[in-house]
């Protein structure tokens, strides 16, 4: 049981980490772009195609 006031050391601690990878694909074909947009990723993982 966590007390909100009495035991300050008993508070829950959360951590958020961000990892970023950049992959440059020079002269991608239409098939490459389609393949990248169809990738199924786990929850919390995002992909951005520019």
Automatic annotation (TrEMBL):
SUPFAM superfamilies listed in its UniProt record: Ribosomal protein S10
Alphabetical GO biological process terms: translation
Domain Small ribosomal subunit protein uS10, first and last residues per copy: 1-50
Short name of any one Pfam family annotated for the protein: Ribosomal_S10
Keyword Ribonucleoprotein annotated: yes
An example molecular function term from Gene Ontology annotations: structural constituent of ribosome
Family listed: Belongs to the universal ribosomal protein uS10 family.
Name the record gives this protein: Ribosomal protein S10
